[in-house]
Amino acid sequence: MGEIRVATFNCWGLKYVSKDRHERIAAIANAFSRSDYDIIALQEIWVEADYNQIRDKVCQRLPYTKLFHSGALGAGLAVFTKWPIIATDITPYSLNGEPMDVTGGDWYVGKAAGSVTVFHPTLGEVQIFVTHFHAKGGDDGPEYNRAHRLVNAWEFAKVTRQAAELGLGDFNSIPSSLVMNIIRSYAGLSDSWTVSHPYIPPPTGMITPLDGVEKYGVTADSPLNSYRDSGPSGSVVVRTFQGKRLDYILFRQPSCISDNPDAFKLTCRDSRVIFTDSIPGSTCSYSDHFGVEATLIIIAPNAQEDVISGNTAPKVAEAPWADTPSEMTSGTISEVLGALQTSYRISQGRSRRELTVFALGILLLLGLIIGSAWVPLSWVNPIFVLFTIFIAWLTTTMLYEGFIFGNWERRALRSVLEELDFHKRKLTLDRS
Fold this sequence. Notes:
The structure is a single chain. The protein is built from nine helices and twelve strands. By secondary structure, the protein is of the alpha+beta class. The protein folds into two domains: 2-325, Deoxyribonuclease I, Chain A (4-Layer Sandwich); 331-431. Strands 3-4-2-1-12-11 form a six-stranded mixed sheet. A six-stranded mixed sheet has the order 5-6-7-8-10-9. Helix 3 (147-161) packs parallel to helix 4 and helix 8 packs antiparallel against helix 9 (380-431). The longest helix has 52 residues, at 380-431. Mean pLDDT is 87; it is low at 304-324.
């Protein structure tokens, strides 16, 4: 019997935007250099120099590394591992925000599902996925607000369904969300926190921020974090749990189990939130998120030890296996379909408005061209030119948003809608 120590952490490493980035990255690198993890997965590591700094610090223990490249500014994903990497891959998500959402910035980066396959001395080939889902949409309100994240979840579940043994990252979704329901049910991945912690019902009154972290696995928007965004008027979830659990370590049994009933199995012995303290000598947190670590236990065939409780009697049911992927329920599929169909109609309406603005902009530009011959004062010329440039930019942007991006978005939504509709019909036939 052996173990695998795993950690995932969103580093909040946006160049020029993230506060105290140099100080925080140096502290993150130092902390990981003193750790005993076998696998580390990082998100929002946008600057290659930051990745190199962390790599150089952990290379003695974790010599095999991968930084994933995708999109205009990179995927922001990295994996560091103790065992040799024998294959890598990346699956960019088809939907990831809108070009006009500059402050959100998701469209300008290449959010994706990155994977590495490592050769483990006991388990053999083990595939590890790291990801970071679309951020915008929150947790409250109708599901169509999270349509792009639902598409991320479906695409992540598809690529991990048959392959992944580990899925790590910032899913930007709380455990009870439709997004996580898709991943758990369709990909068949178990949540290390749920496996290793007894169920605690949601609090009925105010709890402490420390309880939110220790009992409910809060990793974001905690009052304990110096970069907390939401105040007392935050979402219902934040007020109830003193933050949100958005970061996960998911696992499934090695793929060899389906062929060999006597193969080794995995369970999670313990999991906890990490990087909750301030950087030594500073009042700053390590990131705007906390991290998560988990200790996964490799159980030998016919082992009689209950690795979770430490008892000798076998209690395998306390650590349920996810040997094979399951299927989403008809109700879950219907809920996703409803959200995506609403998003599709919203996209159509938005495109019509944007193309209307494009047509009006063309008419205005023609008027400006004609009117430029009668500009009465020379000092008006610079203002006239700047206004013309702005209208030209707006018109071009509306054409791109309304026609090119709008069609791209609806094609992606339609593709997922057709796939989910097929699965719903298949599920109905299987039950009949």
